[in-house]
Amino acid sequence: MNSFIYHIPTKVYFGENQLSHLGEELAGFGKRVLMTYGGGSIKRIGLYDRVVSEIRRAGLELFELGGIEPNPRITSVRRGAEMCKEHGIDVLLAVGGGSTIDATKFMAAGACADFDPWDFLSEKHARIDRALPIVSILTLSATGSEMDTGGVISNPETQDKIGRLDPKLLPRVSFLDPTVTYSVSPYQTACGSADMMSHILEVYFCMEKDLYMLDCFMEGMMRTIIKYAPIAMKEPDNYEARANLMWTSSWAINGFINGGKRKAWSCHPMEHELSAYYDITHGLGLAILTPRWMRYCLDETRLPKYVQFGTNVFGIDPKLPPMEIAERAIDMLADFFFNTLGLSSTLTDIGIDDQKLRLMAEKAAGGGLQHAFKPLDADDVENIYKMCL
Ligand code: NZQ
Ligand code: ZN
After folding, report:
1. Which residues, other chains included, contact 341 with Cβ-Cβ below 8 Å and sequence gap of 6+?
2. Is the distance from the beta carbon of residue 152 to the nearest atom of ligand 1 less than 6 Å?
3. Pocket flag, ligand 1, residue 150 (CB < 6 Å)
4. Residue 39 CB less than 6 A away from ligand 1
């Protein structure tokens, strides 16, 4: 296996009533705070008022930018970066799900640059020299943005949705209070859980040599999602379920499970094209794609990993013929997404037809898929999309 560096210095406050530390943490970065949030869920659940009162109690100066969209737009990023420059902001506080945190990451970088923040994401791939510090309060367990270096931004003008990783985008501090996710709808809980599953599967299914310890860790996290996502959907205020999902969301993508693997991800580039063209929920697209991708990639060379997945995650009898275990594992994953979590199972069901499949396949394949678990070109991706219709 490859050597690696692991360095995720995000300070995490996990659990109820940790927001009492918010003021002191923000004050450590300066006096002027830009709080960012989405379409209003934080106001409905009373979180907005709690956060504002903590900021005021600490004697900090508050600026705010709401209305960040799911699949956040570059226009919101530009607005935030401008506000930071205009008001001399010292620290950004993202209160929300992955969309709000992602947008805030690029506002923080844009605030320190004298060019359009889209240049960070476009082909220009502008260097991120500096970014303002980011603190996050997570409200939806899904993307792991609260503890990872990535962010994904949409540009409707060019119909692009592009991700970028950079250590400077990592939140310095994240508050993870499972009770603030009690209000997340069953649908968003399902999509978030599918997203976490995918983050793990993208790393787990890999032809590079695995570290046994990390495989066990990944299998444990997948069993955690399978166990607790349905509970959280049925009992939204079940603390144990919400807490398990929340901590899994962070660890599924904070780099720990990679263990030096360098393979490209497969389903995420394919899904980002679906979101770019049809503005669908990220986790839903992944749920539809993942079982088809697994079926498409299944062959004798890759079979052992499917067998390991089927027996260790779904408890399939290891005495069955390996190919049967693999097929059953894929069926059980699809059953989890579409029956247990109740997500739509085809692109057709969510109003996507074959019109743009080729275009999306070409763009997705350009995202490094030749280095994936099974190398995929545009024809392969188009075939996988067709399997999803
Ligand atoms: O906007 P508000 O009103 O806050 O409502 C949101 C939104 O409508 C709602 N919500 C969030 N917390 C809630 C809540 N509703 C009730 N109670 C709460 N406590 O949920 C809806 C979806 O929110 P969003 O932030 O869009 O969801 P998610 O966290 O799934 O983020 C998705 C975005 O993250 C990107 C995705 O591509 C997508 O753009 N990703 C980011 C990654 C990263 N940073 O590493 C990796 C992922 O693979 C992913 O690509
Ligand atoms: Zn994802």
Report:
1. 190, 193, 194, 229, 230, 233, 287
2. yes
3. yes
4. yes
pLDDT band for position 27 (50/70/90)? very high
Looking at residue 18, its pLDDT comes to 97
Domain boundary among 155, 180, 205: 180
**Are 33 and 107 contained in the same domain?**
yes
What kind and span of H or E run contains 64? strand 61-65
Distance 197 CA to ligand 2 centre (A): 9
pLDDT attached to residue 208 = 84
Count CB neighbours of 196 within 10 A: 27
Q: Which atom of ligand 1 is nearest to the CA of 42?
A: 4
Answer whether residue 1 is part of any domain.
no
100 in the same domain as 62: yes
| Confidence tier at 112 by pLDDT (50, 70, 90) | very high
Cα 42 to Cα 133: distance, rounded to the nearest angstrom? 22
Nearest CA to ligand 1 atom 14: 184
Ligand 2 center from residue 143 Cα (angstroms): 5
CATH number of the domain within which 302 lies = 1.20.1090.10
Task: Give the separation between CA 240 and CA 338, rounded to whole angstroms.
Answer: 24
Picking from 151, 180, 209, the residue at the C-terminal end of a domain is: 180
Q: Which atom of ligand 1 is nearest to the CA of 140?
A: 12
Question: What is the domain extent for residue 376?
Answer: 185-387
Q: Which ligand is nearest to the CA of 152?
A: 1
